[in-house]
Amino acid sequence: MEKRDDEGDEIDLQLHLAHSARMYDYYLGGTTNFAADREAAGQAIAVFPSARVAARANRAFMHRSTRLLAEQGITQFLDIGTGIPTSPNLHEVAQGVNPHARVLYVDNDPIVLAHAQALLLSSPKGRTVYLQADVADPAAILTSPELEQAIDLRAPVALSLIALLHFVPGDEDASRIVEHLKEALAPGSALVISHGTPDFGPAEAERITQVYAAAGTEVRMRTREEVEHFFDGWYLLDPGLCPTHRWRPEGVELEIADAQVAAYAGVAVKQ
Predict the structure, then answer these.
(1) Which of 265, 197, 196 is CA-nearest to residue 231?
(2) How far apart are CA 98 and CA 189, in angstroms?
(3) Residue pLDDT, tens place only, 203-261
(4) Which of 14, 22, 134, 217 has a CB 3.0–4.6 Å from the CB of 212, allowing a cystine?
């Protein structure tokens, strides 16, 4: 199956291969997934039965953290590793608080590019822009024309790296990427991260890592200490780094066990 992007170029979606973005869409109950994705997701659920719970807790964390930062006055959001649009998207949450909010979505996935128009339905007073780029090259993101259309780096920016960095297997590479992005942001900016961990179930984490590897996606789960390192030099907001469902929960999340989520989340501010 092929789609065309806005310039008319064909996009090969490789629907015969499982893809992590479509697997995540399946966990969330979405419809942008196909037989190979459902088969791989089924294998993941077989070794980690709470995969759907973990995905939904991660999505809820994105909603809560975005809403908080918008309420605290941040009007610019840089979301890298956007994934397949599942409403409400980040810009819907931010612009629900402040219609003037501006969002740059970034992903290197042709699947996301094929659905990018769903990410561009901005509030009339705000702006959303989509950039096809790879987090492995943060300099290209920061110097892109698309970033200039949506983001003023002289003012605070909320940088969201939601469920992204565990798909950057090299520890030095992941640290380099995060530090490059952090250095470019003005004081008052925020860093939002969620990240898979083996801390609550090492055997399950190893098995799900193997499932993703078999589907062609390398995964690097990290410990609490390793995830916390990404926030070095910035001030972690309460409650600090914690399982995703425990970050400023709104009630029902606390019925979930830490092992069901198997991920950490945190929000830090540059002072």
Answers:
(1) 265
(2) 17
(3) 999 999 999 999 889 999 999 999 999 999 999 999 999 999 999 998 656 689 999 99
(4) 217
Are residues 138 and 147 in contact, defined by beta-carbon separation less than 8 angstroms? no
Q: What number of residues does the chain have?
A: 271
* Distances, alpha carbon 182 to alpha carbons 149, 191, 271, in Å: 20, 8, 12
For residue 131, the cross-strand partners are 106
Question: Considering its fold, how many domains does the chain have in total?
Answer: 1
Q: What is the pTM of this model?
A: 0.92
- What are the pLDDT digits (tens) for 168-179? 999 999 999 999
Query: For position 188, which CATH number holds?
Result: 3.40.50.150
Residue ranges making up the domain that contains 183 = 2-269
- In whole angstroms, give the CA distance from residue 130 to residue 120: 7
